[in-house]
Amino acid sequence: MWRMLASILIDIPHFLIHPRRFRWRETLEALSTLGAGSFQVITLATAFAGIVITHEMAWHMQKALHSVAMVPGMSAQFIVRELAVAVPALLLVSKVGASLTAEIATMKITDQIDALRLLGINPLDYLLYPRLIACTVAGGALTLISILVTLLCSVATARAYHFSPPEYLALAGHFMKLTDVIQAVIKGSTYGAIIPIMSCAYGFCCRGGAEGVGHTTTQSVVASTLCVIVLDFILTMLFSLI
Amino acid sequence: MLRFIRELGAIVLFTKSILYALWIGPASMWHEILHETSRIFWRSLQTISFAGFFVGAILILQFDTILARYDARLYLGGVCMSTIIRDVGPLIIAFLLVGKVGAYTAAELGTMRVTEQIDARECLGAESFVTLLAPRWMSIVLASLTLLIAGLSISIGGAFFLALIHSSINMHEFLFLVPRFNGFSTLGSGLLKSFIYGLLVATLACFYGFYAKNGAAGVGRAVTKATVGTHFSIIVANYLTGTLLTALEHLGGP
Q1: Which domain holds residue B214?
Q2: I need a labelling partner for A98 at 20 to 30 A (CA). Which of A203, B75, B79, B116 fits?
């Protein structure tokens, strides 16, 4: 597995400087199935998360200061910096990562990957890179969309605490910077890129028939989730130092 | 929409059969359940602790930046700890649990189904719900609850560790406001959420795994369905329990 992962990581720069290896059709296809396919689940889920976090923040403020004056600022910042980035990424792992690994692992155990090699097609060109580009783009775009949806739900929830939407936005905008949103999109794209890399690394090493596919899928989902959490820590640390 | 309602109904009936099987099952089943629970617990503890530590660390970093903009670092310990226990901690650790325990179970049961092992067992007279599903379901519920509690404790440790080395506050400042935020309601909310997430992981993994079909590709599809379904229902459950608890607190409060 580690050797496969290393060879993929080494091959990525080679792909970047050889545009002829890029496949338009597969990339667009992957973008529509992976990105647009996850759109529904992710927007609905982050909407719920936005409502919950606004109530939670209000509870905290009530406890700490006996006033809810800081609710818009705190919840909007928490949404943009963490919630609307981590939740879509983790959902994307289960939605895209699991099906990608299962697909590639099934191709591997039915010798379809060897068949691709026999036809002179580099399996990475055909299987990994279209999905890698699609997931990177989709990760950033979905993060942006879920920030919008979550903020919208938070604005609606804050009405329960007597904040009108313009008031909320003014209070939230006071503490937010454009760099927060840019950092969120960078994070989202990075997590998106992790998913196909891990799926391919695990899928290409699948062994042991039908049972192997199930186990490989599980391992890849767990590894991708861990990668997202650890990368979240590293990126947050880096951004907080800037 | 109709398909969704039909599936929901099937899941409810499935849970009912499992609970009934637990009720009529022999006493020796509980021995097996405890054995299986400890097996799942030790198998997943390492991963959960690793993730838990980082969840705590991430939250400290985020709240440190946010609170610093308000010049209110004093609240870092209290706010961060109760956010970990009440809301974000169980959510993210349960997400990992879905992959580690839920997907594993769905894959195992799905493989047993498509290789006709379950049919073979039934031919030999073993009642699937009593001998296979009920013990597994119960042990996942118990193991998830204990793993979530372990993960939350470790993430509090992670938060504490990072607060000391990263943000410029000392131990007393960190612990000063912790009791104010972390009363009975916080702990109760964290425990209730952990229990509900455990129920969801166990039920959906067993359901989708047990009814997998169409060979190897079907197992892959069952695993994907189980993970996505569980993730989504965990977020909805988070919303529902959050609303319920807030309503209860308003009733009980002044």
Answers
A1: 2-252
A2: B116
